[in-house]
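Ticket #1231: bound-state structure for dinuclear copper ion.
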Amino acid sequence: MNTSTEHPVSSPHYFVPQPTLYPVILSAGMFMLAFGFIQMLNKFGAGGWVMLAGTAVIIGVLFAWFGKVISESQSGAYRDWEDRSFRHGMIWFIGTEVMFFAAFFGALFYVRVLSVPTLAGMEAAHGFSLWPEFTGTWPTSGPGGASFTPMGAWGIPALNTALLLSSGATITWAHWALLRENRRQLILGLAATVLLGSIFLGFQAWEYHHAYTELGLTMGAGAYGATFFMLTGFHGFHVTLGTIMLTVILLRSISGHFTAKRHFAFEGVAWYWHFVDVVWLILFIFVYWV
Amino acid sequence: MRSIVLHSIAGGSSLASACLRRFQFLALAAGSLLPGAASAEYKFNFPEPVTPIARETLHIHNEFMLIITILFVVVFAIMIYSMIKHRKSVGHTPSTFTGPTSAMQWFWALVPFAILLFIDFVLMGIPAVQAIISMEDTKTRADMVLKVTGMQWKWQYEYPEAGVKFISTMSTPRAQIANAEAKGEHYLLEVDKPVVLPVGKKVRILLTSTDVIHTWWVPQFGVKRDAIPGFLRETWVLIEKPGIYRGQCAELCGKDHGFMPVVVHAVPEPEYLAWLEQQKAEAVASAGSADRAWSSEELIAEGKTVYDKVCVACHQAEGQGLPPVFPALAGSKIVSGPLLDMNGKIIPDSHVDRVFNGKPGTAMQAFRETLSDVELAAVITYERNSFGHKLGDMIQPAQIKALRQEAK
Amino acid sequence: MNTATTANGHADPHGEGHYSGPLRWLTTTNHKDIGTMYLTFSLIMFFVGGAMILAVRAELFSPGLQLMQPEFFNQLIGVHALVMIFAALMPAATGFANWMLPLMIGAPDMALPRLNNWGFWLLPPAALLLTMPFFLALFGIGDGALATGWTFYAPLSVQGGMGVDFAILAVHILGISSIMGSINVIVTIFNMRAPGMTLMKMPLFAWGWLITAFLLLATLPVLAGAVTMLLTDRHFGTQFFDAAGGGDPILFQHLFWFFGHPEVYILLLPVWGLMPHVLATFSRKPTYGYKAQVYSFIVIGVLSLVVWAHHFFTAGLPVPALIYFMFSTMAISIPLAVLFFCWIATMWKGAMTFETPMLFAVGFIVLFGIAGLTGLILADVAADAQYHHSYFVVAHFHYALFAGGIMGVMTGVYYWLPKWTGHMYSEKLGKLHFWLTVVSFNLTFMPQFFLGLAGMPRRIPDYALQFAEFNAISTVGAMILGFSQLLFAWNIWSCIRGGEKAEPRVWEGAEGLEWELSSPPPHHSWEIQPVIK
Ligand code: HEA
Ligand code: HEA
Ligand code: CUA
Ligand SMILES: [Cu+2]
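RESOLUTION: The complex was predicted; output attached.
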């Protein structure tokens, strides 16, 4: 990491931002989003519109907020002390994301190791079964589920693995270029990463389409369908966010925002991207492969 | 076997047992102080135990209460002593120590934790492990099986070996609950048809549920086990004393969770066998009656009984339901819709379909497995001719039987 | 002091001057303002949650249904619990952290001030989501709030009405809020301490909060995952908790309690961190066993993550799992005994006085002792077969949550109120509040232990006749307890309005950076960090 000696470790003043309305508005937007979503699920009021308005508010605030942060950053308000806060903050934020995925992986392991075998082994355990016909071979949609074809590992998923791994390499390349102040390679590396991420998403969309239309593999396909779509879906959602953030970083790189010394935003996004990458690897192994 | 269970408490390890014996006297002495152990009516403690497990649990509980009471008293006696002696107002000057320094002080600081470790893992741990093992040993030398199915908000009991099966619902009149009528002695803890079990036999109990999680609990048996939809759970009882034992559902299971009592009638074995024979005979009679043609009056009369027992909790006495969750049957389009299609098959989302298969994700459960052919035919017919519906049609038990076979 | 260096973009320390009135509070990035908002919100929600349960207690005064139908009863208890835990107790602790951490560790503010503001302003929408279904039902929309208890157990919650959706979304937002708060605390502690203040010189309150923050980061996302699965089970056809699809209702319980158990330590660790300060102050003696307490916090934090299944011993876990969870749960009593030991040793041979905060601290220790010791026997699988889901458990956790959590918070409020407001509160009222609270608290919850032993299940709107006397006593206690809290609110209010001026070092024996500042401290404190030797 960058420890510059230019600014003393303990600068006399920490940057405490001016009062701001962004958080309140953001919260209001989130309330609208949540409330609209509930309305939609329960079919009362104009749920869709409320959601839409909430989303618009959220996006608007995020633009303004991040814009403000960027301009503060550009004006040199953040020095090592503040920079360290951001880094710590980002790391712990990614930590919570790890735990979020852990919950879903936990669910996957639980159904595979405990609940499906228990359902299948009832006769042996109790001398009587509620699901006499159920054999419990994974993948399964459970004793009462519809039949489906599971997703193979070595087609698109394997390709996607390669894509994401390469994108991990390209972003490292970009970082390396940034440290050497090589603008051209930085931009190239980032652009390649964005491209790879987008192709990944395209493939995944296609895979979902394939699953729903041809394999009979839906969210409702029992334990397999549920864990498959929730894990890959949330992962895909994170890739989408990551790609958007990468795009922002790309644009900022083009405008020359980052220096070899100060580029927390770049690194934060890069960490996030690596995290998404690692999640995919685990996912590839346990969801698609074994 | 019983004696093993009984004595396991003292037999855990020689160390533990020696200590416990030392405690016996203390326990008796403190027992009279402790509200629990002494009171004859067990008002401050578990109700009188009638199974080995319950006795063991009570024993463990008393032991533990004693231990924690001693801990409590010792710890807070020290604290209160300090609060009295080391006050500023009595002119005590504060010391400045911040931790143990000499080896001796370290030793004395660590003693309480050694004691606590001993209490946790030996004094409390060993009897607990033994109790767990005997509680979970449902299969060794079980004499019979009882299958218990929880459903909103009643229990179904099944004697698989005898082919007997019935539903047991709370019989306390709603008027008593609404304070419109004086409350009876067994208010909320009485049912229309208690489950009957023989005394002195090890009964293996299999539990499941048709909708949400319920918990079968009879305090005097020391048994509490969840009934989980789609899964089986086991427990066992060996009732030592004839009597009527009452308990309740212990897991929040929706609106009438508080009105889902368990009543067990424990009788000597011959009496139990006689009762079972009678139930069997009734079951055969009712199965036979599914094949004959029923008149609409008969079905409606029978249907009303079923409705008032099984359906009324949700759809209410006049079929008015409790909207928005529990729809009214009065004026329901589903009830007034057609019965079966031209080929005598079930129409999706029709009256028969709803009662037969329920609606997943809602409280409306599938009654296919819980009600008999006659009961299903009767309740459907009843609904179609009550609550303002005057469809005049009916469905025969035999038709239900046929539908059932098709489904298979 | 307070020399503003706006030249390189630094905030003008009096920037807040731009806003006054409500806008000040909406927009503030100042840790003290945000702390005040958290604490105010917490107090309001304490009364909201309390009012709900007073209605419940009134219903339970005698057998029969008098005031409400079972559906409504079920809604009240679940929302009571969620409001008390998520909207009263947790925000109170976060309020403490916001107000006091920077003062105690010599930081100019929290590390991420804007995020800090956001963390707070997520709370009101979440509280609104939690309670709104009650009001919507009045207009014929939906069937009221969630009626599943605070534990959301599937499949009851899959079957439940739209109140469950509201609660799920509320929990999501509350979760984001707490995660933001926790990240802020962690970063502040790691990055903002005054030079020379090593971790092992840091006040214990900061240590308690640090562990709390880590626990929140580790467990809240899992709760978020669990309720997300619930949401998709409810509306998008997944079958995580449905045996027919190969799922399992017990999976939900594992996920919920993986969060739910650490949550109880999340609620109490800040209080455990606070206790040594109060005890040392009023014993006029340094804290006993600083290191031992730090290590205990860490051990408690770690252990709390691996004991969750003691909340569903009756669900039919395999025997080895039962034994493991029993012993690991019992093991938590060891670090807690260390804490008790240190607290009492801190008092030992001091020169004690008993101002209101000290009274609450002592009350806390005794009553939380009861909670902890009954917890210890709850951990015993065999005995828990009787206790589980009975009022015994209700009594246990109110001794922990009210006598531990709320009374701990009250300790802190009385202890720091003069620092915050610059005025002394009324000692007389404070003592009255203490005695009324302690006596009526025991009157409310002691009988519930006996109710549980006698076999009264929890979460029932009506009960058999043999439980009548104890329930009546409990209700009377609850009413006194509830209305006594008005004294607390009144005392705080009058203390804000005025009163005897408070010294910087409010209490004779108080040690620590926070007491070096004036009471109330300047709007921006420690802009130049103190240096710790
Ligand atoms: C702040 C809240 C809090 C705290 C701190 C605790 C602390 C503990 N709890 Fe509690 N608990 C709850 C809140 C809390 N609990 C809640 C809310 C529920 C119910 C949830 C629901 O179902 O809705 C619950 C339920 C609950 C259960 C499930 C009961 C059931 O449903 O069947 C169990 C079982 O093991 C348990 C155990 C414990 C234990 C072992 C501790 C331990 O941490 C206690 C450790 C403390 C001590 C052991 C005391 C210290 C020692 C001494 C005073 C003397 C020794 C001293 C020396 C020797 C020097 N708790
Ligand atoms: C921090 C947590 C917390 C706190 C502080 C409390 C506080 C109280 N709780 Fe709570 N309770 C829980 C957490 C908490 N509870 C949880 C987790 C459950 C389990 C829920 C479940 O089963 O899912 C529960 C369940 C629960 C039950 C069991 C319900 C059941 O199982 O059927 C009962 C019953 O007596 C109860 C009682 C009380 C009482 C009397 C208080 C008192 O301390 C309250 C004191 C009262 C006040 C502070 C109110 C003051 C208000 C006024 C005086 C009105 C004034 C009005 C205005 C100003 C407008 N609680
Ligand atoms: Cu069935 Cu509660
Ligand atoms: Cu717990």
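RESOLUTION NOTES: Residues 52-85 of chain B form the longest helix (34 residues).
TICKET STATUS: resolved
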